[in-house]
Each structure stands twice: as C-alpha cells, then as structure tokens.
Amino acid sequence: MGSLAESAAGHAAPAAYPFISGVILPFMSNGRPVLNAATEGLIHITIPVGMLQCNCSIIGDPVTREALVVDPGDEVNRILDLLGRHKLTVKAIVSTHAHIDHVGGLSKLHQYTGAPVLLHRDDLPLYQAMEMQASFLGVHPPELTEIDQLLKEGDVLRWGSFEAQVIHTPGHTPGSVSLYLPHDAGKVTGVPTIPTVLDEAGEKIALTDLLKKTAGPEDLAEDLPPDEPEKIATHAPQLFSGDTLFAGSIGRTDLWGGSMEQILDSLRTKLMHLPDDTVVYPGHGPVTTIGNERYLNPFLQPE
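The chain above was modelled as a monomer; its predicted structure follows.
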C-alpha cells in the first residue's frame, strides 16, 4: 500500500461532552450538521456523530472527487451516504486521537471503503484499550481494525489537489494530532475571496457570518447544494483540531495519558502560531478561529 504521508489537572466536564474541559460551550442543536457545504474549491461536510456528538469531517476535492474522512466516530452508514451523494472516493481515514468517540467507526468505514487508517503512534495503546474506554462510558466496545499508517509531526497528507500538515498536539491524549490546511493547500485561480458556504436556501453566506451565527433549527438542512459549477478559489487556512482546542475551551487532561502541561504547550507553541484567520473545526461543538481563541479562550490568556 502506498504511503499518503511524507515527512516534511483535570477539569469537570459538561455531561454531554466528557472529554472537554469545564468551560461553558455553545452546543450544537439536535445533533445535526452545523456545516454542510461546498466551500469554494473545497467540498467540506462536518456532521456530529454518535452518543458524544463527535464532529466527523469529510474534506473532498471537487475535481478529482478524492476525500479525507476525519474522526468517523460512529454512524458510518450516514457517512457513507454523504460520500456517495457527493460521489467521493475516500483516500484516507484519519483519527485525531484514539478516544472511543472518534474511532468507533474506523473499522466499518475501512471495510466499506478499503481506505487506509491513520493514527499517531503514541495513541496506539489507547486504541488497543477500547474495552476500558467502553466500560468508562457504559457502552459496548467497537470493532477494532489495523492501523495502516502511523502519523508523526511534519507528515503531509495529500489527496486530489489538497494537502494537510500533521501537527502533533499531545495533552488531551499522548498521540493527539491536528490537521492544518494552509490557505494555498489546493489549486488556486482568480483573486482572493472571502470563503463562503451554502445556507439552507442554497444562498451563499460568508464564513465570517457563519462564525457569528448560533446553530438553530434553521441550520439543520442536510440536502446537497444545488447543481452549479464548483469554483476553485483561495480559502482561509483551516485547522481540524480534534479535542485539543474548542470554541472557548480545551480538551480535558485527567484521562488516560492526558497532561495539562503538554496540552498548554501544544496550544501555545504550535496552534497559537497559526494565522488569526485560520478557521478551526474542533472535535466537538461549533466552528471558531485561531484569532477568537487567542483573545477570548480563558485557557490561553496571559497569567
């Protein structure tokens, strides 16, 4: 199989999200998609899946129809349906870390797509301890699968015309990673534009407006965008942060291998060095930006 990658103190958590530190979060409503759109030059669908509403992301190239699936924690049939409706072929399946809510669907999605499964080496013991994790939540352990490729800092994942840089961000778990798509990750033509998504009426809405908008019943449409040419244009940098960084909070560190010192170091020395306009898609909850978290996240303020 060809390699996709090239080297290049615990806090009380809200009951709905037992892996998030205890800061009030604006939750998504009704477990439905808060982002379901084709951004200009990038097919991107994020849906909350499973009991803990892990954000599973599908990132596709509109030209080659190759896609990356990030954190398929559950509801694999739903993920497969979206892939089929968008005519996407899965190039790789990536887990940002090995907590049960992010890896529960790995085996089934791999079986259906044949795509390689990628995980950081330092989270292998956690993945292999699925019975312990399932017992913690009082659920049945999911089926495990072989990990086809072990991720490390500096790897670059390529699919279609896009690439994502692997950033090792330990703290929530030893092998937590974030995926960073720089603004020039894909083919670019034309002049820079404000990235847009499609709302429930098929109208384009600026991503900056989406960040200001609270998810509600009007955001629950799951229909495909209307047929129109898919444009290739500059888009803002994007970060898939797993459970390292949330809107207004960070991942909890009092579970298996967690470290407050490590997660703060990952945030301050790595993620906070990304551009302020970087759009952050966390492992749970709503979209944010690096700039918002730099100035508003209570865990990231000067002591």
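The first strand starts at residue 5 and ends at 7.
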